[in-house]
Amino acid sequence: MLKKIRETIEYLESRITQKPEIGIILGTGLGGLVNEIDIHHTIPYEQIPNFPVSTVAGHHGQLIFGSMGGKNIVAMQGRFHYYEGYSMQEISFPVRVMKFLGIELLVLSNASGGVNPDFEVGDIMVITDHINLMKDNPLIGKNDDEVGTRFPDMGAAYDPELVKKAFGIAAKNGIKLQQGVYTAVSGPTYETPAEYKYIRTIGADAVGMSTVPEVIAARHMGLKCFAVSIISDLGVPGKIVEITHKHVIDAASAVEPLMTKIIKEMIAG
């Protein structure tokens, strides 16, 4: 793993001029945050050694280096998913690269189905915990102690102080926020009504197909994490409707400016 990371770092450092402090992963329909970045360099994934390539609509597939809120950042405009056929190690590889580039905080976003009956489409949920139902884990296999500890603690995977800070920013700006537990499944099918019921029963508030492998890898390396999930549809009895990927993109895009405001102020602070 370290050999591949170093190859990728060597290439990227030959293309960039500033060391990033914060990493951002933008989910489905949430790439608009890029408009708030003072962009210095844009590098398509296919040009980066050892990087996977995003194959999903709504994921542009480029690594962006720049500044926002007075901080140097690196942003993934488009992520990778287990259902695309990538391994957990491939999905989390960009997080490891960002860590070795110098980031200390990872900010993630996604679109998800809400299973909490108090949620509505368009709600922004700050993730406070997660459940991994993907039946795999990016840390399975031989551990490299230079990358991270063999048995990382996940008791506070999502930084409590950043969660508190997000709610303060939201209150100041009159933005409604929810908080809750995110469950990750493999996809690519959307859930059946019985699956929605099961996911709610085991303690989740939302369900999606990403984020958890990236957070596991980040915590493995000691990175702080903050994540938000846009509720793009509902898996609540009486509110379940047929959905498409376009529906998810449109619902997430509509709320993206509010999410962007919170993240931009958080970074600046």
Terminal Cα span: 34 Å
**Largest pleated sheet:** 5 strands, mixed, barrel
Question: In the CATH hierarchy, what is the architecture at level 2?
Answer: 3-Layer(aba) Sandwich
Strand content: 15-25%
CATH class: Alpha Beta
Record field, number of beta strands: 9
As a percent range, the share of helical residues equals 25-40%
- What's the helix-strand series? HEEEEHEEHEHEHEH
Which of globular, elongated, flat, extended, rod-shaped describes the shape? globular
| Global mean pLDDT | 93
Write structural notes for this entry:
- Helix content is 30%, strand content 25%.
- With 269 residues, it is α/β, with parallel strands linked by helices.
- The chain has one domain: Nucleoside phosphorylase domain (Rossmann fold, 3-Layer(aba) Sandwich), CATH 3.40.50.
- Strands 5-8-7-6-9 form a five-stranded mixed β-barrel, surrounded by four helices.
- Strand 6, helix 3 and strand 7 form a beta-alpha-beta unit.
- Helix 1 (2-13) crosses helix 2 (88-101) and helix 2 (88-101) packs across helix 5.
- The longest helix is centred in the C-terminal third of the chain and has 24 residues, at 245-268.
- The chain is globular.
Q: What attributes characterize this protein structure?
A:
alpha/beta, 269 residues, 9 strands, Rossmann fold, 6 helices
